[in-house]
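How a chain folds remains the central question behind the approach discussed here. For one protein, we set the task of working out the structure tokens from the amino acid sequence alone. The sequence in question and its structure tokens are set out directly beneath this paragraph.

_____
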Amino acid sequence: MDKDFLLDTEEARILFHKYAEDMPIIDYHCHIDPKDIAEDRNFDSITELWLGGDHYKWRAMRQCGIAEKYITGKEDSRERFRLWCRTLSQAVGSPLYHWSHLELQRYFDCDLPICKKNADRIFDLCNAKLQSGELSAKKIIRMSKVKVVGTTDDPCDDLKWHKTISEDKSLGCRVIPTFRPDKVLLIEDGGFGDYVSALGKAAGVDVNSFEDLKKALSARIDFFAGMGCKSSDQSTVMFPCDRISEAECERIFRNGMANETVAEEERLGFITEVMLFLGKEYRRHGWVMQLHFGVARNTNSRMFEAVGRDTGFDRIHSDAPIESLAAFLDELDKTDSLPKTVLYSLDPSMNTALDVLAKCFNEEGVCGKVQHGAAWWFNDNLGGMKDHLRSLCEQGVLGNFIGMLTDSRCMLSYTRHEYFRRILCAYIGRLCADGELYWDEENLGEIVKNVSFNNAMKFFGME
């Protein structure tokens, strides 16, 4: 894993080292806690930094039969790290292996293979550097050349940490909120009424009707916009397009607030009306609408009861219909209310369908108005990214692509941008080496720079 890692042609090496390697980063979608940045958090140990909230690693450790107390528990930090190193040494071909070694090399100047025999040495070396203060949250951002971080934030959030960060002119990076209204779609959930009440309080609106709910959402969108927000993000199994009347929507809303049973067709109708309203609001502000779909969450009910949600028991949902998604986009487009949109599917078999769908909605002066977003979650690996790029090249326009994101809770995950750039350059380089593409260094170098950074900056209005 040297400087030419994954770069198997001369063309790939030129593209990466000359055009991609030194480009800054826009991490437009992540799950980093803005508090960590605002307080310039120093991490106590490499165990905390690597295992503190990374369900990718937790899944791998469970597959190796490791006790849960060493995964999500608070057992001895050194022993947990040893077990992680033992796990990684068995994870041949895993992106975790690549990511972890890149992080070790870039942030700790350590090129030791991560394995059982090196565990203690790596643990001590990393901890010494962490405890020296060299790798605080802000220092990691600066050394990674990150120019924009888009966090993921609930509409009820007061965004106080974003305000604190914005006052630090020395950071050299914009940290902006992303509007994530998932909970307002969960009308069938027993906590829906409490959440809507909290939303109303944050917005200064008494929410007693569906119309009030829209007013509260609009007020929070205005607030987020004032704090620099440039995009929204929704995550659900599917995005329906089942239109219902205002009266029906009002009745369903009241049932949800009263914690009464909401039928499946009522739930889908409610989500449709909320999402159409939100889409129009995003368009009003010039935001990007990010849609993550095709995930089935909390599959293991026993472990959900034991350790909670978002702990590594989610999977690919096999039935996320693209027909309803297409109808939803079209419903917004009919009234010129479709914002710039990024589509992420967890099911890689949908790559071609999404690339073709994206080409159906365009706008003069906007390159790639609807984007098939980066290979997501279980697909952000070597094979997944290659398949994604191949589909994008064959069905779309690679030069318009907005590139990579981390979608991570770990401050060291910026190496995923390097990983993607290496794969991108290797893919283009191979096309040239195989005679499928003219070697036009100037043109291809410009494409690499744009996909690595420039396109996303323009798409999200960050120029």
Summary: The chain has a mean pLDDT of 96. DSSP finds 19 helices and nine strands in the chain. The CA atoms of residues 15 and 444 lie 8 Å apart. Strands lie at 25-27, 146-150, 174-176, 231-236, 288-293, 295-296, 315-316, 340-345, 370-372.
